[in-house]
Each structure stands twice: as C-alpha cells, then as structure tokens.
Design a protein that fits this description.
mainly alpha, about 0% strand
C-alpha cells in the first residue's frame, strides 16, 4: 500500500513538473512573434531609413536566447529534440522506458548538474557588477541574459526528473513479456 502511495506522490510531482514546463514553454513561444517583428523593424530601419539600433539588435539576441534556452525543456517533454531513431521506434514500450530512464540518469541529469556547477560562478560575477553590453547604447541586462544558462539547466533537470519518474512507473507497470510496442495483449513474438 505504501508503494502505491509513494508512486502516486511521484506521479503527482511529475505532473506538476510537466505543467510548469509546459506553461513556461507556451509563454516563451510568443518570443517567436517578437523576434519576427523586431527583426522586421531592424531591417526596415536599415534599408528604408538608413538607421540602425544596437538596442533592437541586441533585443533580438536576448529573445532568441530566451526562446531556445527556456523552451528546451518543453521540447524535451514533447519529444521534439532530434533523436537518432534507428532502433527506438521499433522496440517495446518497456524498452523505450528503460532507454529514457538510463538516458536521463546517465546523461541528462549529470550534464545539467555540470552546467549549473560551472554557470553559477559565471552568472554570480555578472550579477555582482550588473554587467552591461559592451556597446555604449546596448542593453544593460547582460547579467539577465547569462542567468538563462543555469535556468535552462534547471528546467532541463526538472524535466529529466519527470522523465525518470514516468519511465520508472512504466517499468514497474509494463508486462515483462511484451516485446513489441504495438502488441497491446503483451504476447510479444510468441503470437507470430
């Protein structure tokens, strides 16, 4: 009974993480529209009025970085990252869960921990001097831009934890005899 309660709590944690990551992803996707509009303004100013704006150009860089760094975890959640899918699509749901579990535990989570470890002093130095653009008329928020790096790692780590929970639940629940993902009866190759 306690195992079911613990499993239910872990599933609730994974669901909360998934909701948070999806909310952040859906919010930052609006930066795509911002990017297009600002880029259009920069091009229009340059070619129609022979004028430029370092602030507008830097805002494109900031929006691009925020979009990709903050939406990466949502992309992972939606299984949108590039995957070398030679074998993965043909294996059982249980094997996929095992691959996801091991991938998150051995690669994703340790790599995100390393990013956080190295990024925090880098970001702290930037915050300590409230780092600004090197350009005189540039944006004064370089420290916020650099903060996106550990935030990216944190969000990816959270999504990795959710992935681990879901994969572990699948491994506990999936019948061991099912060899094919498309075999709802769990007969594997024996029925062929």
């Amino acid at each position: 009974m306690r195992t079911e309660e613990g499993s239910g709590r872990l599933a609730a944690i994974a669901a909360r993480i998934d909701r948070l990551i999806a909310a952040i992803g859906r919010t930052v996707m609006w930066l795509c529209l911002f990017l297009v509009l600002i880029q259009f303004c920069v091009v229009l100013m340059r070619y129609a009025f022979a004028a430029g704006s370092i602030r507008l150009s830097e805002s494109i860089l900031y929006a691009h970085a925020a979009l990709f760094l903050l939406a990466a975890a949502w992309t992972l959640q939606q299984d949108g990252h590039v995957r070398v899918d030679v074998f993965y699509s043909k294996v059982s749901a249980r094997t996929k869960a095992l691959v996801d579990l091991l991938g998150a535990l051995l690669f994703l989570l340790p790599f995100m921990a390393v990013i956080i470890f190295f990024a925090l002093p880098y970001v702290a130095r930037s915050w300590s001097v409230l780092e600004r653009s090197r350009e005189t008329s540039g944006l004064p928020f370089v420290y916020l831009l650099k903060t996106l790096v550990p935030l990216f790692a944190l969000l990816m780590g959270l999504q990795g934890i959710s992935q681990v929970i879901r994969a572990a639940r699948m491994l506990r629940a999936a019948p061991r005899s099912s060899a094919l993902a498309g075999d709802p009866a769990g007969r594997g190759d024996a029925a062929s």
